[in-house]
Design a protein that fits this description.
The structure is a single chain. The relative contact order is 0.09. It is built from 14 helices and four strands. Strand 3 and strand 4 form a beta hairpin. Helix 3 runs antiparallel to helix 5, helix 6 crosses helix 12 and helix 9 crosses helix 11. It folds into two domains: 71 residues, 2-Layer Sandwich (Translation Initiation Factor IF3), CATH 3.30.110; 267 residues, Orthogonal Bundle (Ribonucleotide Reductase, subunit A). A four-stranded mixed beta sheet has the order 1-2-4-3, with helices on one face. It is mostly helical. The structure holds fe (ii) ion (FE2) (2 copies).
Amino acid sequence: MTNAAIAIDTGDLPFGGGMLALVRPALDLLEPGGVLAVLTRQSHAIDELGTWCKVERHELLEATADQGGATRILLRKGSFGAPRGAIEDNLDLKPHGGRIEAADMLAAVPFAPSADPGTGFAPRGARVEPGGPVYPCTINDLAHAAPPDVAQLYDQAVSAQWNADTDIEWARIKPLPRPLQRALGQVFTFLAENELSALYVPSRFIARLHPHYVETAQFLATQMADEARHIDVFLKRARVGGGGVGISHATTSASLHSLLTLEDFTEAAFLLSVLGEGTFLDLLRYIEMHAPDEVTADIVRRARADETRHVHFGMSHVKHALSHDHTMYARLEAAVRKRSATLAGAGGVPYAVQDSLTILAAGGTDPAAVAKGHSAFRELMEVMHENRVKRLLNAGFSPAQAQTLSDLHTPNFM
Ligand SMILES: [Fe+2]
Ligand SMILES: [Fe+2]
């Protein structure tokens, strides 16, 4: 940290017997040009240290006999190969309430506005020795890599994890009338298929994200763990009680394919999390409201709590990028339009999804109840649209843009 001299006493340590284990860390504390005084009682050490300095491109300034048979050697630190960055010598992270959160770590070692792909997997704050390879990161700037609340969201995600095996009271599920059972199987088939896209899409961006912004990778890892659990719990629910997995529609497949092929992290966050998972919040609430039993309601309530966090992260990411880069508005709008054009022939909400959501809300196949179920489904479409518009307005889009973009959103919901 300083060019001021540092002094160390290596006592009787031979040069090849541990002296360097004291000399090298002391030199690491100095900036290039800084001076280190080494006190030694080993008479051979002067020559050996001199040779070592030449190899390492440090400079041996002088060696003088001290009182009591010791020698005092002055070394000037060279600049070649010296690690870049300040050493964290005084960083003393303090727990509060016995805890240390990721947010505390980020506050202690904040993000830089941009990161060098040459620092690879070096933890943020490490002094990086030059000469390492350049990593294939393409998301290297704070504006696109990490929203300000990413560490808090990661902390929340870690403490909110649940278990699809032991936290669900599977034994309490009772058999349902067959049409309702099949509708439920179809609903959960559709949910699981969409969850698969929510697992795969973020995974594509972790390897492109600069490790300096590791909290984003950590958050995405929790998101992927959430989606893995949702796939697990939804497929279990589809199969418990004999409903079974239903139809996978071409519309769903085309819609999710158009997410998987996105190349831009922020566009993917916008389409997947803000628009897609945002719309799924309303879908999950609908399923909870019309769930045939408390266990099913509990499953979608838990999934919805996780999705709320994913939408929050997506909103934070997109708003942060928009605040730094105004051209993003046009880019995000273009991404929605392009996707809509790709899906132009896909038709409306996949019929099996529409029918099963109607039967679910009807609670069976009684025609009068189905009429109500149909109304409930129409209402769901309106609620999804209204809430998408609210999210788009919150992100800073104009009312006209928000209406248009919501209308252009995929009939598959995600
Ligand atoms: Fe999910
Ligand atoms: Fe999600």
